[in-house]
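User: Quick sanity check before I run a bigger batch. Here is a single chain. Can you write out its predicted 3D structure?
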Amino acid sequence: MSDTSASSRSSLRRIFAPVQSLFVGDASAGVLLILVAAAAMLAANSPLAGEYRELFYGELAWTPIPKLYDLHLWINDGLMAIFFFVVGLEVKRELVSGSLADPAARRLPMLAAVAGMAAPAVVFMAVSGGGEYTSGWAIPAATDIAFAMGVLGLLGNRVPASLRLFLLTVAIVDDIGAVLVIAVFYTPTIKLAWLLAAAVVLALMVGLNRLKVSVFWPYVLMALVLWYCVLNTGVHATIAGVLAALTIPMQRADGNSMLERLEHGLAPWSAYLVVPVFGFANAGVALSGMGADALLAPLPVAIAAGLVVGKQVGIFAIVAIADKTGFAPRPAGASWPEIWGISILCGIGFTMSLFIGSLAFPNQPMLIEEAKIGILTGSAISAVLGFVVLRLTTTHPADECDDHGRQPSEA
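Assistant: Done. Predicted structure follows.
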């Protein structure tokens, strides 16, 4: 075999390894969501724009729940509850028996998530000047888990596992924080009777856990009832998914993990069906008629600044402070440039930010469209900048790794 032939194959591996790594491992779901979102943008800005909007926003001829009168609402309030249920299962597993079971280990990502929500809000208010834009302060607060992990997937396995877990945990915590913000700040009215009913159902599910009931169907039935009650409280229904997941027992009577079995069964459906459908339904933003004035208006600039500047400054600064003071060490095996890159990736807001934007400015379609521009711009900048920083600062360059990102000694 000639040196030229071997060199050619090595070059081809270096070229195609990132492409191959896109659909290997957990990051494949994120990359799929990116592709679906791009398809939604094309559909919303093509001759099929009318059909696209009618599909998701056209009133249904019949619906069993009048509150959910179009397909978009069924997806956002119903289907996405499954996604949040899986997130809740993962959070509980990590907290009870995973890498976050140690209080010292979860201290840093939870602190970073709080700082990563507060700093973008401060930046947003400073740049926008408040006033009519004040209600949009939470738009840049959340990190989109799937998109961030998808961008990280472009780097293969070169990023330390500790940083991947850190990013995932920060994203999960501030997504849950965003749901709580929606419940507290973006819920115009709360129906106390339904709230009490939801509390009763949740208490019954906790009772099932305490009684060590180890079959799935009682939990599934009561989770559906919980979702319906929460839907009617006025609080966003997806929070029911997280709450229901926290009641699932870790172990069955036979010693097998009930929670992990349920998580492994639902995770592929969530990653490859629920989230892509949600992305396609929500990512289509019509850009026609928007000129430079819309791009440079205070609202989109403030949102983009919150995502790009606020997120990375808040998270990186709190990690540095926690590490230097000894309160919580930085992720093991991660350099400061890598932590900076991860902090930038947390600025990918997208889906949750789009949702909060629609709640922040009811009956103000122009501001909603401006908010979407800021979200898209800020998320895109964070994705590209974060990828570039990590690509340039990862410990093991591509030519020292095989097609899956492993070093030769690991092959």
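Residues 11-25, 396-411 have pLDDT under 50 and may be disordered.

User: Great, the batch can go ahead then.
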